[in-house]
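Marked as duplicate of an earlier ticket. Keeping the data here for the record.
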Amino acid sequence: MKTLTRQRFLSALAAAAALAAVPAAFAQTVTLRFHQMLPPQAAIPAKAIGPWADAVEKASNGRIKVQRFDAMALGGRPPELFDQAKDGVADLIWTVLGYTPGRFPKSEVFELPFTTGGAEGGSKAFQEYVEANAMDEFKDVKLIGVHIHGPGLIHSKDPVTKLEDLKGMKVRGGSRVINIMLEQLGATPVGMPVPAVGEALSKGVISATTIPWEVVPALKVQQIVKNHTGFTGIKGLYTQTFAVAMNKGAYDKLPADLKKIIDDHSGQFAAAMFGRAMDDGDKVGLSLAQQAKNNVITLDAAETARWQRAAAGVREAWFKEVNAKGFDGPKLAAAAEAAIAKHSK
């Protein structure tokens, strides 16, 4: 009996030692709550957030679970999303940087008129620019990635075929810089988050909106307005900037191997994925407008140049503002333009 008891004791000891040899981290499973403003069928939730979450879950062998909360299901308003990541209300968020005016001054350079074209290349450029020039603006979170949308255009109830058609028109703008641009173009800017656009158009609060084609299907804009005005050339009238951010505490609590998985799916990986979803979404939105037999207008080179000249003052005004904050506006713009040229090849 003594021999049998001793053997059992040694076996138990060996089993305990074997378990101790396996790091506790490998047994850990983490659920991350991802919060954003759009309905789940919109391009970014369906074609970017979903695939990103799937990739993270797969790379972690299921040890990271991403629980999605669409259309502000965790409460609050879209402008509060960045602070929800900072404060831990959510573990991950996707948001529009322009919804918190003045908070990301160095990142605003990508919102200047006629700055960018395609979303994937532009998003890679924006990510590179932020990493080199503006990471301090994201010091309160773990930045997963930044991105932009495709060429910006105007969707309106009445046709916009020349600059004068915009005079006095109430047009929704999605950021401080875009609203300044609309005012310089002669419109009356009305600021609001994108989820409010459909109702505002239907009720006549606004007569037109600045959104990329990608947003059109989710808001059914092609059913509310019948005119869509774009521009000659690859660059759009305006650009909205976006970020995917993670709560620093949630990231810091992860074991090293799970942190690496988040890191591997951040930066250029995330920027390209989200930008590509925007480009693909633009094709869908344009197709729906064409199927509805809407008036899809492309202003010719001469008229596009008129708009470019009319909007040129936005850049100078932005230079003056950021210079007053101690930043070199022209230098930041040059850095942005260099990154865009590099990633547009």
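See parent ticket for discussion. Residues 268-291 form the longest helix (24 residues).
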